[in-house]
Design a protein that fits this description.
This protein is of the alpha+beta class and 350 residues long. Helix content is 60%, strand content 14%. Strand 4 and strand 5 form a beta hairpin.
Length: 350
């Protein structure tokens, strides 16, 4: 509002006082110049009156409400009234001017006549058009702002819904792992529960934030990997190459990579307890890279260890949080014996 008010004052000040430059004459005194300028104010004041009647009343009440016929009819009457006011102003000021002050400078105003009526009519029509353009632009800006706010609220609600889905999804997979571990090694199962408590602390608290420091997310993934090491056999080779400092505070969305890691352990281990899982992470100039490779052992159709919503959630979260600021490469390679997934996120604009 303050900015709009300033713009209005500035524009009308130019319209009202710019004619002073054209009425300046070397042979005229300052009082004569002011009188000649005052006589010319009938036009700008009529423009201002017509502009604000449309801007504040006619356009919102008639044009925006679909009463366009009445809007244009009223404006025809207002333009005729404005022409009459301009003539009356001219004559009124001439009557007030002292003797000898009626002669204008060479480029000064002249009494209205037929061509002048035509020019003034066109000018008044343009003023109406200008008020409509300003009002329509403001309405479009308000509509666009409301649309953006609605999209933002929708995105935040969708992201919150994804978080609510992610927590039970992650917990279910982890509990399935501990359940399988109890059957053959109770001591390892107890250690797994301890590791799970650390993971849940991150899931329940840090996951409620929009972004967490990268070192916290890396610590979470390390804990998850250690939890999985307890479960798997020696035939599963787990390699990590994490080149991220322990104090790296680069902001990252919480749990954005965990579904990739879960997927690797789900599909990267054969029924005979063999497989390869490789995790690589790095950060350079705000660009965070997470690449996970695993052996490809597709699960049977009756395998209930996961519902498959994890990767879909990753895709949705990336679109919501990092639109146009991420790449995700994934697929099979090495004769379909390996599956790779590589996400690169530019977090510098967070």
């Amino acid at each position: 509002m303050k900015r709009n008010f300033t713009i209005h004052i500035l524009c009308w000040s130019i319209v009202l006082f710019l004619p002073l430059l054209f009425f300046t004459s070397p042979n005229a005194s300052w009082s004569q110049t002011v009188i000649w300028w005052f006589r010319s104010l009938g036009g700008p004041l009529s423009y201002m009156l017509l502009f604000y009647i449309n801007y504040l009343w006619l356009i919102p009440r008639f044009y925006f409400n679909g009463r366009k016929t009445a809007f244009f009819a009223i404006n025809v009457g207002l333009i005729a009234l404005a022409l009459g006011l301009m003539v009356e102003w001219w004559q009124m000021v001439n009557n007030w001017m002292p003797a000898g002050a009626h002669r204008p400078p060479r480029r000064g105003p002249r009494p209205p006549h037929v061509p002048m009526y035509f020019y003034n009519t066109i000018s008044l029509i343009l003023v109406v058009g200008l008020s409509m353009a300003v009002r329509l632009t403001q309405r479009w800006q308000h509509s666009e702002q409301a649309r953006q706010e609605a999209e933002k609220a929708k995105a935040e609600a969708e992201l919150s819904n994804l978080r609510n889905q992610l927590n039970p999804h992650f917990l279910l997979n982890t509990l399935n792992n501990i359940y399988a571990l109890i059957a053959f090694d109770a001591d390892k199962a107890q250690l797994a529960v301890d590791e799970l408590s650390r993971l849940l602390r991150h899931v329940l608290y840090d996951n409620q934030q929009d972004f967490v420091p990268l070192y916290k997310e890396v610590a979470f993934m390390r804990n998850y990997i250690e939890l999985m090491r307890i479960r798997v056999t020696d035939g599963v080779k787990i390699e990590t190459d994490i080149k991220i400092a322990d104090d790296d505070t680069t902001p990252i969305a919480p749990l954005i990579f965990i579904s990739l890691l879960e997927n690797a352990f789900k599909h990267g281990i054969s029924p005979q307890g063999k497989g390869l899982i490789r995790v690589e992470m790095s950060q350079h100039n705000g660009q965070v890279t997470c690449a996970i490779t695993n052996s490809n052992y597709p699960k049977r159709a009756n395998d209930k260890s996961g519902s498959g919503i994890g990767l879909e959630q990753v895709s949705k979260r990336l679109e919501l949080i990092y639109p146009d600021r991420y790449t995700w490469e994934r697929g099979l390679r090495n004769d379909n014996t390996e599956y790779f997934s590589r996400i690169v996120i530019n977090s510098t604009e967070v």
